[in-house]
Specification:
Elements: E1 10-14, H1 19-30, E2 34-38, H2 42-56, E3 61-63, H3 71-85, E4 90-93, H4 109-137, E5 140-145, H5 158-178, E6 183-190, H6 199-202, H7 205-213, H8 224-234, E7 245-248
Helix pairs in contact: 1-2, 1-8, 3-4, 4-5
Amino acid sequence: MSLFSLADRVAVITGSSRGIGRAIAERMAEAGARVVVSSRKRDACEAVVAAIDAAHGPGRAIAIPANISSKDELRHLVDETTHRFGRIDVLVCNAASNPYYGPMAGLEDAAFRKILENNVLSNHWLIQFAAPQMLARRDGSIVIVSSIGGLRGSEVLGGYCISKAADLQLARNLALEYGPHGVRVNCIAPGLIRTDFARALWENPEARERREAETPLRRIGEPDEIAGAAVFLASRASSFMTGQTIVVDGGVTA
């Protein structure tokens, strides 16, 4: 079998109705996995499921909506996946939020709490629910989609960057805890990717031109370019890799 095959694997991807999450779901299905598409809105999830099933045959994907801010809904996501597919082999914590754009001085407590809860605490919850079965089988891969914001500061995304730095440490810490039981935990740190989530950073022509000028590859990234890293981290190709962060940013942080 290919080192990158995900045949007979079950993958849960949050925030997978669009953008990076959708690209990861589609590429994991292409690699042979059965995938669970999850985001807040059922209709959006079902549309992705239909596209995956059309490409790879019926039953390859299912939709289980969940709001990452709800601990009960995340527990249901894990329980329902296990009920319908039998297990979870790969967990991709991709969903995140950023309700504030501006300097830290203007970041109010409620918005900061929402950022930390949705981008860090929700990942902690979801991993807590999914990891026990992986640990029992001594097999599994957990991928947290962080950001290069977690590696450097920002004048307008400070709260978001702080949360993404915490995700890097969450992966490192869990890698130490889970490694003796055969379960791996890694991060992906994307740069600027053409998604609705990051629209404010690339839609403005002047801002985009500045970003492209400071990027060695002279362009912003596409969602599919993050999906390849996710397939790698989920597959046997990365079997000796844990507690690490793959930076996919066109060279910006170099």
